[in-house]
Design brief:
The complex is a heterodimer.
Chain A: H1 2-13, H2 15-49, E1 55-59, H3 63-70, E2 81-82, H4 83-91, E3 95-107, E4 110-115, H5 118-122, E5 124-125, E6 129-130, E7 133-136, E8 144-147, H6 149-155, E9 162-163, E10 182-188, E11 198-202, H7 203-209, E12 213-214, E13 217-218, H8 226-231, E14 238-239, E15 241-246, H9 252-260, E16 267-270, H10 272-313, H11 317-325, H12 330-371, H13 382-413
Helix pairs in contact in A: 2-10, 2-12, 10-12, 10-13, 11-13, 12-13
Chain B: E1 11-15, H1 22-29, E2 41-42, E3 45-46, H2 52-62, E4 63-66, H3 78-83, H4 90-96, H5 102-112, H6 117-120, H7 130-142, E5 148-152, H8 160-177, E6 180-185, E7 196-199
Parallel strand pairs in B: 1-6, 1-7, 4-5, 5-6
Antiparallel strand pairs in B: 2-3
The chains are: A alpha+beta, B alpha/beta.
């Protein structure tokens, strides 16, 4: 017991380099765990975002891109599909339901989605969960809007508030649809998906706010007031994408082929799961690169520890000689140094893990609202545990080299104490 | 050296200039290194026939060692340093705590060696003066009454007054515990303290 206590005291007498070593290890562990957590959180968030939709149809483009802009609201649509095409899709005999999506405008940095009330019926997230309303109801009137949970909390909106939709997707819209304000009639419950950051209006409303616009700017000569627009028969001209549910899963590929061979307009149909798989393949390489980087950082920290122990070895020859003189075997000297490395690494791993969880707990909401990645605070999974254990093991192995050197020294020095 | 013998309870001074192989001799004696040939018999145990681990154990049980200087682990307290050998020597530990807990025994030895134990027992050993450090080292060598105390120029860092103080205290304790003292020095003037003096320059230690 005294030997362990003395080993700790010895370490604490060299507290500054020891602390730096522990900090370096802790940082490397934080990096590794952080990358792991964000990676898993991102995957889970993405995978949870769409559920129950068999097919997504959009203008002809890459599957990943279509999925990203239609479902995740990342990036922009290259092209729209016409209303007629949409109607053809909806009439297909394999199709059970459709949800048209129209994107392109924003409200103070939040995307505005034009859709139908079918959206609230058929859109599902996280193992087929339906959207639920925290307050209010679906949009009904032309200028009603239903906002996501994050929109409500970050902008402080409540039911009955009047909002103005900006033209285009910028956070600060120079052009606004000021003349046609919307009223908040519903606030959705938090889902942890991009829905939280979306402002939902009807397809007709999208049409209405653009009715007197031409070529991307309002046409002052041709103003249409709210009253006038209410009298008009609004029919959407184009939409961005369609979520499709089929009567039978077995028809997925047949339907996909039908869409891809659609003559009137180049459109494409994707299976969300397949597109996500492609996305993971793409992201996988970046993930591997990140994993390699965090591995290197861990290795660097371990090498740093080895250097620290090696450089103190010479000044500790006397300590070793004293221990030898009172009857400690060279194995004790070996064990002392190996366990010193083990203690340092373990402390680093522990500190890094604790720091990461504290950081995660503090930054979780910020990450969620900024990137839409919800990172659940869970104990390290098996893989993480294995790596953490591997780091401690690596630390012990890294301690063997200096320890072996001290072992040899104490064998040759014996009682002879060099200054 | 053809033959070297020391009897139980004897105090012996080995005189030799530096480089005469004194430290090697002490390492052999304490069983830290093994001779290439010849044999070492201590207290009826043939040291050369023991394994390295058994020799370490033997050293812990039967030897007390005092170095020239820097005898103490600087980060340990005085009591930690004194009781250090007992971690490796269960029998010596039992002997040390026969009368009272080992900490008390450490404090008793300290005060016998002229250090105000109440003030210094929990002090970090790096806070002590050189003379105090050597006394603490002596206390460490003496705790649990090992049969043999080996000292490698323990007084060379002390001035002559302190040297005499230190030696008389050491001899007092040695005779109390009936240990054998083997001290190495280059200072022949110490000879009158000892039962016997051997000049090491004419021995070949290998």
């Amino acid at each position: 017991m005294t030997i362990i206590r003395l080993a700790l005291q010895s370490l604490s007498s060299r507290w500054f380099p020891a602390l730096l070593t522990v900090l370096a290890l802790a940082l490397s562990v934080m990096l590794f765990l952080g990358v792991e957590k964000i990676r898993n959180g991102a995957r889970a968030s993405f995978a949870d975002t769409i559920s129950g939709t068999d097919i997504v149809v959009g203008a002809r483009t890459g599957g990943i891109q279509l999925l990203l802009y239609s479902v995740f609201r990342i990036g922009n649509a290259t092209n729209n599909i016409t209303w007629k095409t949409y109607q053809d899709i909806a009439r297909n005999r394999d199709v059970k339901w459709t949800v048209p999506l129209s994107l392109g405008d924003a409200h103070r940095g939040f995307r505005v989605l034009g859709t139908t009330t079918d959206y609230f019926e058929h859109y599902r997230y996280r193992s087929k969960q339906k959207l639920t309303f925290a307050q209010g109801k679906r949009f009904d009137d032309l200028f009603d809007t239903v906002i996501g949970a994050d929109v409500a909390t970050s902008l402080g909106y409540k039911l009955g508030d009047s909002i103005v939709i900006g033209h285009g997707l910028g956070r600060v819209s120079l052009l606004k649809h000021k003349d046609k304000p919307f009223r908040v009639v519903g606030i959705l419950s938090k889902t942890g998906t991009p829905v939280d950051r979306t402002v939902h209006v009807s397809l007709e409303a999208i049409e209405a706010i653009h009715i007197d616009w031409k070529g991307g700017t309002p046409n002052p000569a041709n103003r249409v007031t709210v009253e006038q627009v209410r009298q008009m028969k609004l029919k959407p001209r184009a939409i961005t994408a369609v979520l499709v549910g089929l009567n039978s899963k077995l028809r997925v590929f047949r339907f996909q082929r039908t869409v891809n061979e659609y003559k009137a307009e180049p459109i494409t149909a994707i299976l969300p799961g397949v597109a996500l798989g492609e996305l993971w393949q793409l992201v996988g390489q970046a993930e591997t690169a990140l994993a390699v980087v965090s591995g290197m950082v861990i290795l660097t920290a371990l090498l740093g520890m080895m250097t620290m122990i090696l450089t103190t070895l010479n000044e500790r020859r006397r300590e070793m000689a004293i221990l030898r003189s009172v009857g400690a075997g060279p194995r004790t000297v070996l064990g002392l140094l190996v366990s010193e490395a083990g203690v340092l690494t373990f402390a680093g791993v522990l500190l890094g893990t604790i720091a990461l969880y504290v950081g995660l707990w503090l930054a979780r909401d910020i990450i969620d609202s900024a990137y839409g990645i919800y990172i659940p605070i869970q104990p390290p999974n098996q893989r993480e545990f294995l790596v953490l254990g591997g780091i401690v093991l690596g630390g012990i192995v890294a301690g063997i080299l200096p320890a072996a050197r001290a072992y040899r020294q104490s064998l040759s020095d014996g009682m002879l104490v060099r200054n | 050296m053809k033959h070297f013998e020391v009897s139980h309870g004897e105090t012996l001074l080995l005189i030799g200039p530096s480089g005469s192989g004194k430290s090697t001799f002490l390492s052999l004696l304490c069983g830290i290194i093994s001779p290439q040939h010849g044999s070492i018999d201590i207290l009826g145990t043939e040291l050369t026939k023991l394994t390295a681990a058994a020799r370490d154990r033997f050293r812990a049980e039967h030897f007390g060692v005092i170095f020239q200087m820097f005898n103490l682990l600087p980060y340990g307290t005085v009591v930690d340093n004194i009781t250090l050998p007992l971690n490796f020597a269960p029998r010596r530990r039992d002997a040390a705590r026969q009368a009272h807990p080992i900490e008390t025994e450490a404090v008793r030895l300290l005060s016998r060696l002229g250090i105000d134990a109440d003030m210094k027992a929990k002090a970090a050993s790096s806070d002590l003066s050189v003379g105090q450090q050597q006394r603490v080292a002596a206390a460490r060598a003496l705790i649990g009454s090992p049969e043999i105390v080996v000292a490698d120029e323990p007084t060379s860092a002390l001035d002559s007054n302190r040297r005499d103080d230190f030696l008389s205290l050491l001899f007092e304790e040695i005779s109390q515990s009936k240990s054998t003292l083997i001290m190495v020095s280059h200072d022949e003037s110490l000879a009158h303290h000892f039962d016997r003096t051997i000049v090491l320059s004419d021995i070949a230690t290998t």
